[in-house]
Amino acid sequence: MAVVLVAGWTAACATRVDVARVTPTYTGGAIQRLALGVTDHRTYVVDHDKEEWFEGIMRGAFGIPTSLGRGRVTSGEHGTPYPQFATRLAHLLESGLAAGGATDVVVVPLRVGAAEPETLAQLAATGAERRLLVVMDKSRFDFGGFFLHPDYDYDLEVVVADAANAVLTRRRFSGHEADMTTDGNLNFYDNADVFMYRPTLSLILSDPAIVAAIHH
Q1: What is the bridge-based pairing of β-strands 130-143 and 34-40?
Q2: Which pTM value belongs to this model?
Q3: Burial bucket for residue 195 (CB in 10 Å: 0-12, 13-18, 19+)
Q4: For residues 160-193, b (16+ Cβ closer than 10 Å) or e, as one string?
Q5: pLDDT at 99 over 90
Q6: pLDDT in tens, 2-52
Q7: What's the total number of domains in the chain?
Q8: Which residues form the domain of 47?
C-alpha cells in the first residue's frame, strides 16, 4: 500500500516545474573562475547504511517509511542522471550562480567522506581562482503520510578558498524546517527542490561573507 501511494504521488505531475522556482537565488554578478564541489558526510552514507542517492523518506498510509532517490527512480534536468545526491546539490548551486551572472563555474564530483585537504586539492586541479566547497553533514526530509507536510533537517558547512587554498571564509548553515507547506500540483522531487533545497541553497549564495569571498 505504501509503495503504491508513493509511486502515485511521484508521478502525479507530468509537467516539470518552471526552472525559476527551482533555481537558488544569487545576485552577486560575474566572478573569476570558480570550482564548486559538494562532499557527502552524512553518517549513514559514510557508513554505507544508505546509498549516495538517498534524499529522504516518504511515509505511506500506515507510516511505513520508503526511501527514494532521484538517481534511482527518475533523472535530473535534460535527462542527466544524478546517482549522487551531493552532485544534484552542486548542480543546483551552479544553476543559481549562472542565473545571477556567475557563468564561469566548474562542478567537481567529490568522494563521500573526503577530508578538506583532499577536496580542496581536487578543486584546485581545475585551475580556478576560487574554490567553493560544501560539506553536507546532514540533509534529510521526511514526507509524512497523507498530509504531505514534510520536515527537513540540514547541516551544511561552506568553505571558500583562494588560488593558494587559503580559506577566506567558513560558514555553517543548519536548521530544522517542520510541517512545511508543499504544492499539491508538483511531484515529489519538484516539491523537494522548490520548498527545501532552493531556500537552503539561496541562504548560501546570498550570505555576505561567501559573496565577498568568491569576489575576493
Answers
A1: parallel
A2: 0.85
A3: buried
A4: bbeeeeeebbbbebeeeeeebebeeebbbbbbbb
A5: yes
A6: 333 343 344 444 456 788 888 999 999 999 899 999 999 999 999 999 999
A7: 1
A8: 2-8+28-178+186-214
